[in-house]
Design brief:
The chain is an alpha/beta fold. The chain is built from 13 helices and 12 strands. The protein has 2 domains: 143 residues, Aspartate Aminotransferase, domain 1 (Alpha-Beta Complex), CATH 3.90.1150.10; 242 residues, Aspartate Aminotransferase, domain 2. The strands form 3 sheets. It has a 7-stranded mixed sheet, with helices on both faces. It has a 3-stranded antiparallel sheet with strand order 9-10-12. Helix 2 runs parallel beside helix 8 and helix 3 runs parallel beside helix 4. The chain starts with a strand and ends with a helix. The relative contact order is 0.16. Bound molecules: pyridoxal-5'-phosphate (PLP). Pyridoxal-5'-phosphate (PLP) binds next to helix 3.
């Protein structure tokens, strides 16, 4: 079997060996409950504190502003529901058409209302052909009724970066809470929350080489907050439930590694991504880049191969051990083209043939060279056998 070439890091990442090592003792002898009075538990609590400090360090936040959660989805749900609970007289939510389902589906459910539930008004802002937001249009929809703006930092499918600083500044001016889903941004771009007008930020461990099942929500000091999980006094009364100590320690270690590797992410990973992208755009006929050419995460490339089925490409890549994705992993299984590409106005024939490559620090030049060699013949072959592709090619001759 071919060696795996993993280019699907926006779906999930490999747990770093250093992270595995850091969490192992907490699955064995260090099993105490950090809330216990005895020394055995208290010792564990120190490691939870240390992990909180490490994560805060990656974000430029204060440790008291970090709440550990179970995943990015929980962080998003907590932030949105908290804002609505804290501003009960406001009924308007602003978001975009390209949010992850963790934000988009919740906002849509809230906007549907129902018996005994408030009816929220939802503005889902459009994006342009490059996946970018129009800031003027954004500012024009804010009102005294707006309870929350929830706009992602980086799009999971295209890697497009949103101008979170300008968005936050506009929110501040109007006295509106700003939450950003930074699940794809954390660890890939530098973040300094001390200097940014962001009230809440979501992240997820499994996107930055920690295991699945751990996330965090940053809540700026002084921000009104209402817990989502109500129970014990954990997380300073902001999230009930015994702390997932091994996973928290793992996230702390992953945050430390991400800080050390930020420069490599910005240079070597970006160079590998650019090499892959350039080679594919040059050698595969009808290949189009989806998303802004520069305002993008350094690791992500979303390319459409017109008149070819994305799923067919993925299956053939899979035979070579190459892992990528079409649309986002969460929507795979449905034949609907990605809501992100649709919002960007990517033609149907191109949206269906879109592939997302997402790299990590573990990828090598050799792996990229293999993909560049393997993929163009796959595209040519699929075009030949697709009646749609044959017609298109014949018309072009
Ligand atoms: N937000 C974005 C932008 C994501 O890419 C994802 C996962 O793909 C999530 C939220 C959900 O994170 P989790 O899988 O930790 O719930």
């Amino acid at each position: 079997m071919a060696k795996t070439i993993y280019l699907d890091n926006n779906a999930t990442t490999a747990v770093a060996p250093e992270v595995r090592e850091a969490l192992a003792p907490f699955l064995a002898e260090w099993y105490g409950n950090p809330s216990s009075i005895h020394t055995f538990g208290g010792r564990v609590a120190r490691y939870v504190d240390e992990a909180r400090e490490r994560l805060a360090g990656l974000l430029g936040a204060d440790p008291s502003e970090i709440i550990f959660t179970s995943c990015g989805t929980e962080s998003d749900n907590t932030a949105i529901r908290s804002a609505l609970a804290c501003y009960p007289d406001r009924r308007h939510i602003v978001t975009t058409r390209v949010e992850h389902p963790a934000v988009r589906n919740l906002c849509q459910v809230l906007a549907q209302g129902g018996p005994g539930r408030p009816n929220y008004r939802l503005t889902e802002l459009p994006v342009d052909r490059q996946g970018m937001l129009n800031l003027k249009e954004f500012e024009s929809v804010l009102s005294d009724d707006t309870a929350l703006v929830s706009i992602m930092w980086a799009n999971n499918e295209t890697g497009v970066l949103f101008p979170v600083e300008a968005i936050g500044a506009a929110c501040r001016k109007r006295g509106v809470l700003f939450h950003t889903d930074a699940v794809q941004a954390v660890g890939k771009v530098p973040i300094n929350l001390a200097e940014l007008p962001i009230d809440m930020l979501s992240l997820s461990g499994h996107k930055l080489h920690a295991p699945k099942g751990i996330g965090a929500l940053y809540v700026r000091r002084g921000t009104r907050f209402s817990p989502y999980l109500v129970g014990g006094h954990q997380e300073n009364n902001r999230r009930g439930g015994t702390e997932a100590v091994p996973l928290i320690v793992a996230l702390g270690q992953a945050a430390e590694l991400a800080k050390q590797r930020m420069a490599e992410e910005q240079t070597r990973v970006r160079a590998l991504r650019d090499r892959l992208e350039r080679a594919l755009l040059e050698s595969a006929p009808g290949a189009i880049l989806n998303g802004h050419p520069t305002e993008r995460l350094p690791n992500t490339s979303n390319i459409s191969f017109e008149f070819v089925e994305g799923e067919a490409i993925l299956l053939m890549l899979d035979q070579h051990g190459i892992c990528a994705s079409s649309g986002s992993a969460c929507t795979t299984g449905s034949l609907e083209p990605s809501h992100v590409l649709r919002a960007m106005g990517v033609p149907f024939t191109a949206a269906h043939g879109s592939i997302r490559f997402s790299l990590s620090v573990y990828n090598t030049q050799e792996e990229i060279d293999t993909v560049v060699k393997v993929l163009p013949p796959i595209i040519r072959r699929l075009r030949e056998i697709s009646p749609f592709g044959r017609e298109k090619l014949a018309a072009a001759r």
